[in-house]
Known about the structure:
Elements: E1 2-3, E2 14-27, H1 30-42, H2 47-70, E3 75-87, E4 90-102
Parallel strand pairs: 1-3
Antiparallel strand pairs: 2-4, 3-4
Amino acid sequence: MILVNTDYITGKELEMLGLVKGSTIQSKNVGRDITQSLKTLVGGELKAYNEMMTEARALATKRMVMEAESMGADAVVNVRYASSAVMQGAAEVIAYGTAVKFK
């Protein structure tokens, strides 16, 4: 599956199949949440949250690809990501784009 953030793929004629998306809501455990809260006092990278968001993006992407494959797509163009806080220590990540088939 080809994933691009442009609305075209060089050398390919595309047939649009429709919008596809994948999402997840992730959180860290309470112990990690407390240590990350303390980290905000001294500054620096919040590695546990960075890992959480990386995992969430990967899972959202996987779910988007699965939806595209179920439509018979060869690629997803205009891939975008968005995230929002659902509650303290939990975030939703959504991946979305347009499923396409090569002509």
